[in-house]
């Protein structure tokens, strides 16, 4: 006991404050991850789930997943969904951040209203867009037919080509406020004197934006893109509510595929394997985020 007291004196006292968080992370994060890895190496189905010792199959679950072809489709769909969503979320969010960086009447209330898509629960948003893209009752079909752009209603959520488009549109609407607010914070940290100096030196608005705004906004842009990638890549609720991965796996992403294997087909080992693949991809993205963060802090 005395040795423990001596250890936590002085500079080591900080470890004592970190200890509760460490115990929390090991219990609620570390244990599920390790348990899921072990589960992915076992043959766990409805028949074997009650056995005290589950059959060990090694990497067989991963092999079956790659042989089925659906895993590759899910990875491609997840990448397509993530990249398309990020590009348009960032462009619209950046444009709105530049717009709201200027002071004008009702600027703050309007910017607050634009945060509503981010604050609404995703399940509610998914249901809303599911009705909007509905074949017979959807407002989108009614609007397009009212403008004579289409003659018959489009089955947005039941066709492979349009179902992914509908999901991406819904996710763009959700993510624009996230990009806008983070980039607005980054813009607010840029001293106005730098823009005034650039204008005195003869730089026009585009040259000042390219030489002053973009370089100083680089850390915020990197954070927005990497955090947006992590948040979007693990999407589940929006896809599950709107399409459930259909039609014919056209919108099947890694998270919904893991759910389907585990709770619809009851192939718990393969479902855990898909979850581990998703975890590895997100962990790599997290490492890049930490690398960029530390690099920016060292350059300051």
Labels describing this entry:
single chain; 300 residues; mainly alpha; MetI-like fold; 2 domains
CATH architecture of the largest domain: Orthogonal Bundle
- The CATH topology of the largest domain is given as MetI-like fold
Number of helices: 14
Order of helices and strands: HHHHHHHHHHHHHH
Low-confidence stretches: none
Instruction: Output the radius of gyration.
Output: 24 Å
> What value does the average pLDDT take?
88
Q: TL;DR of this structure?
A:
It is built from 14 helices and no strands. The chain is mostly helical.
Task: Write structural notes for this entry.
- The chain has 14 helices and no strands.
- The longest helix has 32 residues, at 268-299.
- Helix 10 (192-200) runs antiparallel to helix 11 (205-233) and helix 13 (254-263) packs antiparallel against helix 14 (268-299).
- It has 2 domains: 1-40; 58-299, Orthogonal Bundle (MetI-like fold), CATH 1.10.3720.
- The protein is mostly helical and 300 residues long.
- It is 73% helix and 0% strand.
Topology:
Layout: H1 2-7, H2 13-40, H3 60-68, H4 70-100, H5 107-113, H6 116-119, H7 122-132, H8 139-146, H9 160-188, H10 192-200, H11 205-233, H12 237-242, H13 254-263, H14 268-299
Helix pairs in contact: 2-14, 3-14, 4-9, 4-11, 9-11, 10-11, 11-14, 13-14
């Amino acid at each position: 006991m005395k040795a423990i007291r001596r250890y936590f004196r002085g500079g080591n006292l900080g470890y004592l404050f970190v200890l509760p968080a460490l115990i929390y992370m090991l219990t609620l994060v570390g244990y599920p991850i390790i348990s899921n890895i072990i589960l992915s190496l076992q043959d766990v189905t409805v028949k074997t789930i009650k056995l005290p010792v589950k059959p060990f199959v090694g990497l067989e679950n991963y092999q079956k997943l790659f042989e089925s072809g659906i895993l590759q489709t899910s990875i491609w769909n997840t990448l397509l969904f993530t990249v398309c969503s990020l590009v348009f979320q960032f462009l619209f969010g950046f444009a709105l951040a530049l717009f709201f960086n200027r002071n004008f009447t009702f600027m703050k209330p309007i910017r607050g209203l634009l945060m509503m898509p981010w604050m609404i629960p995703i399940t509610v948003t998914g249901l809303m867009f599911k009705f909007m893209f509905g074949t017979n009752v959807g407002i989108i079909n009614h609007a397009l037919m009212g403008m004579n752009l289409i003659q018959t209603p489009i089955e947005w959520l039941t066709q492979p080509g349009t179902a992914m488009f509908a999901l991406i549109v819904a996710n763009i609407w959700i993510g624009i406020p996230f990009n806008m607010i983070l980039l607005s914070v980054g813009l607010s940290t840029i001293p106005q004197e730098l823009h005034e100096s650039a204008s005195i030196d003869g730089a026009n608005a585009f040259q000042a934006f390219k030489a002053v705004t973009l370089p100083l906004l680089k850390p915020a842009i990197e954070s927005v893109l990497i955090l947006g990638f992590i948040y979007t890549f693990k999407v589940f609720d929006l896809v599950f509510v709107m399409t459930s991965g259909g039609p014919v796996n056209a919108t099947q992403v890694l998270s919904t595929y893991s759910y389907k294997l585990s709770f619809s087909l009851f192939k718990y080992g393969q479902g855990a394997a898909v979850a581990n693949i998703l975890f590895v991809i997100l962990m790599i993205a997290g490492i890049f985020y930490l690398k960029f963060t530390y690099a920016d802090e060292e350059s300051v």
